[in-house]
Amino acid sequence: MIANISRQLTTGALAIAGTVAAFDFAGAAQAVTVSTLTITGDATISPWGTTNPVLTPTSVTGVSNGTGQFASVTVANVTTPKPFTLSGTGSGTNTTVTFSPPPGPSLGFTTIATPGLVTPNVTPTLATGSNTPIASSASLTTYNVSGNAIFIEPFLPNFLGGFNISFTLGGAPGSVAGTYSLTLVKTDIPEPVAVPEPSAILGILAVAGAGAFARRKS
């Protein structure tokens, strides 16, 4: 069981590391990881073999590893993360199953008071699961969902980052009471500002030019 939990944590760490590495490349090798936070709690988890399993955090019982903007965050400062519904059915044992497509974006996935309110909007890019027997009539099921995040700040700009949430369900078949661990990583790369398409800019200039010409004639 310990070995499987270690593999689960390693999977989450690799997912976060991959996200940060991608941002590091995009950000011209600047030091991008500025704030991290881990949130843990209870969850209701669909048993292995359920079609389109639902992963529902139900409480926040702990926070740890807070750095940067999240260094002083406590349990009282965060809200329970929103649920995910995966696509597909977990099957087999001692193997990793990829659920595809991954869940859709989750706006307001959780909130963090810093004391200003920070809201991660997350977009999953990968969802996996595995099931491992731990006794004659018990098993350990894990689900992992990871991807990108935009941290909506109290004041602009907002910042890019990543997330990984791991769900663990252990016990007899049919059990649904488990736990989750959510890791958030916020970088110092601002969210890109939408720039109008060149055609739209030309249209605006054309309208402005026509107006100026009309004023000159009058």
TrEMBL record:
<keyword id="KW-0732">Signal</keyword>
<dbReference type="Pfam" id="PF07589">
    <property type="entry name" value="PEP-CTERM"/>
</dbReference>
<feature type="signal peptide">
    <location>
        <begin position="1"/>
        <end position="31"/>
    </location>
</feature>
<protein>
    <submittedName>
        <fullName>PEP-CTERM sorting domain-containing protein</fullName>
    </submittedName>
</protein>
<feature type="domain" description="Ice-binding protein C-terminal">
    <location>
        <begin position="194"/>
        <end position="217"/>
    </location>
</feature>
<dbReference type="InterPro" id="IPR013424">
    <property type="entry name" value="Ice-binding_C"/>
</dbReference>
